[in-house]
Amino acid sequence: MRAYWLNEGPSAAIDEAFLASQGVTYERLPLDPAAYQGPLDALKAANGYIEQDIVQLAPDTPNLDAICAKFDKEHTHDDDEVRFVLEGEGIFDIRTTDDRMMRVVVEAGDLIVVPADRHHLFLLTEKKHIRCVRLFQDAAGWVPHYRAA
Ligand SMILES: [Fe+2]
Q1: Which residues have beta carbons under 5 A from ligand 1 (an ion)?
Q2: How far is the CA of 106 from the centre of ligand 1 (A)?
Q3: Out of 14, 21, 23, 83, which could bridge 115 as a Cys pair, Cβ 3.0 to 4.6 Å?
Q4: In Å, how far from its chain's centre is CA 55?
Q5: What is the model's pLDDT at position 89?
Q6: How far is the CA of 36 from the centre of ligand 1 (A)?
């Protein structure tokens, strides 16, 4: 994981403690399913997540651009956005509570939780590949609400 202030660039690093102060959970987990499921089960029990699935985006994913276009504009969800990255990488741009933009670049082994109702967007990197475990409280809650222009 690398996090920094988007308007200042990669040298303006943000640490895990600051992310935590913003309600953004970040953890490293092992990539072996037998090893990561226990910590994910604990997170599910703690936060009331009941659904788990795996999502993958890759250069050959049908309608990749249309899928990405749903999430590359600022939005919120009624549910937390929980992603544990198994392969590839991705970018979360997340607003602070005082409306500054943090960029969080995640890779395999990174678990991130973007809290419900927090403005954010998601981008693929130039590799256009990510494979993630998702956890939900309710799949119906994981629908984007877009920020007004
Ligand atoms: Fe989202």
Answers
A1: 81
A2: 14
A3: 23
A4: 12
A5: 98
A6: 23
Residue-number span of the structural domain to which 15 is assigned: 2-143
81-133, pLDDT tens digit by residue? 999 999 999 999 999 999 999 999 999 999 999 999 999 999 999 999 999 99
SS3 assignment, position 112? strand
User: Is 148 inside any structural domain?
Assistant: no
Whole-number Å distance, alpha carbon 121 to ligand 1 midpoint, is 6
Q: Look at residue 93 and tell me if it is in a domain.
A: yes
Distance from the alpha carbon of residue 75 to the mean position of ligand 1, in angstroms:
6
CATH code at position 25: 2.60.120.10
Q: Which tens digit of pLDDT belongs to each residue from 38-53?
A: 999 999 999 999 999 9
CA of 2 to the centre of ligand 1 (A): 19
Report the number of distinct structural domains present in the chain. 1
Residues 107 and 34: beta-carbon distance below 8 Å:
no
30, 40 contact by CB (below 8 A): no
**Alpha carbon of 77 to ligand 1 centroid (Å):** 6
pLDDT band, residue 148 (cuts 50/70/90): confident
Instruction: Give me the sign of the Cα torsion angle 141, 129, 14, 16.
Output: positive
Distance from the CA of 60 to the center of ligand 1, in angstroms? 22
